[in-house]
Amino acid sequence: MGTVILGTGSCLPEKRLSNHDLEKLVETSDEWILSRTGISTRRISGKGEEAFQLGTTAARKAMAMANVSVDEIDLIIVATMSSHMTMPSCACFIQKELGADNAFAYDVNAACSGFLFALDSGDKFLRVEQNKKILVIGTETLSSRTDWKDRNTCILFGDGAGAVVLEYKEEERGVVASNLFSDGTLWNLLYMHAASSSNPELEQPDNPGVHILMEGREVFKYAVKAMEAAINDLLIRENIEMDSIDLMIPHQANIRILKKLVSRLGINQEKVFINVQKYGNTSAASIPIALDEANREGRLKRGDLLLVCSFGGGFTWGASLLRW
Ligand code: UT7
Hints:
alpha/beta; Peroxisomal Thiolase, Chain A, domain 1; 5-stranded mixed β-sheet; 4-stranded mixed β-sheet; 13 strands; binds oxa(dethia)-CoA
């Protein structure tokens, strides 16, 4: 018995921004970006491609694959940190677009780990409310939270959305277990201010605007160690050997982080799904986009063991195991 993924969907903006395009914006080169990050191009939203709009399209595709109608959806959880409004939530906008009148909806912000955290919340919800169906969506327009003059960050991020439909089934598959963590003491290694405060007492004079700021090297070091420990702990706890994993879908942040993680874990590289070269780091959207691509490419068969892991601002990180 478990929380099963009935369908997956994703949506990427039309516009591609290549490394050569970035050479015209900041002092950088295709060679530097490719060798340091593995990223060649990323998608950037245009008009009509806000986070809720990308998320809505991804959700429709996931529901079509799942053969689930919008009236059957009881809950919509959206992982994002780049919705066009702080309130209402992105989830409420998606609910409105879908016409999901029977669903309640809310957002989760766990930065790049948002989808994993939202998936865990969805799993826990369904274990209690067993006859319901829910949407879990990761959607981001980080292009609207990027300082396009900062070469340290503007080369990294992209826009996109991915979604899954979940249902609790009396079958020996679904979410097996999750191992999630946060450490707020390390917030200042990767962060983004809110808009300036209208209360002078709370105004932060050093607020540079709503942009992602990062100590790249520190993030790199923590990311590898933290994901490695979360995965190894989870496998020990569940008594599962690394060789039993059929597919690993990590958060797509940077090819060097992924290569280092893969070599430390000792997992066969061919079992690791990577698409960071096409989309850059899409934060909370990266895992569900990759999951949808892997699924549609036929990389997942019934009974396969899937490992997903992530790391992001907070810090937040973790790993989950799913039986497909
Ligand atoms: O979900 C988690 C999100 N965050 C991440 O995944 C980021 C993790 N960190 C990283 O991926 C890497 O730290 C980066 C790709 C961000 C940077 O690579 P690095 O090898 O750690 O480079 P660095 O920051 O140590 O910078 C090395 C040099 C510096 O020049 P100097 O001081 O040595 O003269 C930078 O100014 O590279 C320079 N540099 C660039 N040069 C060309 C920084 N950004 C660029 C750029 N183009 N875009």
